[in-house]
Amino acid sequence: KKTKGDPKTDQEEESHTCCGCRFPLLFALLQLALGVSVTVLGFLMAGISSSLLVRDTPYWAGIIVCLVALVGFVMLCISYQPDEKTCVQFTVKLMYFLLSALGLVACVLAVAFAAHHYLQMTKFTCDTILESCQCKLDTADPLGRTFVYQDAADCGSLTSMLNLYLLLQMALNLVAALVCLSACFVMWKHRYQVFYVGVRFYSLTAIEGQKQKV
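Above: the chain sequence. Below: its structure as tokens.
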């Protein structure tokens, strides 16, 4: 039986704890806070104009990150077993890893879409026409594409508010992507940080040497 003073037991406890708590807790809390923030901000952006595309209101990225956080909390409720001896523990850890990777991809896409839209808006020339804000990249080109934002009586307030929301989305999704990446790295390191390659290689060479002597 292992006692509390056993160094091996202490080492096993430290391997799955961080700052006095089990290591997914910090990531799950951060993911939940960031996911809720991204989701709420996405729905606020959707309320500015009905013509905004889904890619420009990345509440979907926030929902994915919130789902990852919930799986992390479920993993905390499962009693720790060394070497993943329980099927439930392995399944939840694998699900958390895969969803964190999916959240990373979703947040990176959200950052890319928000950055593209923000760069476009910095070059827009907008006018209010019939309760809508119509913007063009090049006013001298009669065939240039016109971007229409419905339900906008004031182009100035819409563009300034939308620019602010896009900057916030880029910042929040970038932080969420870094958190998901860190979670994937910690999960991978926690599972595969120990390789007994040297011992295995030494044992094989010793066996081969014994065979040669015989």
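The helical segments are 7-15, 24-48, 59-77, 87-121, 155-192, 197-213.
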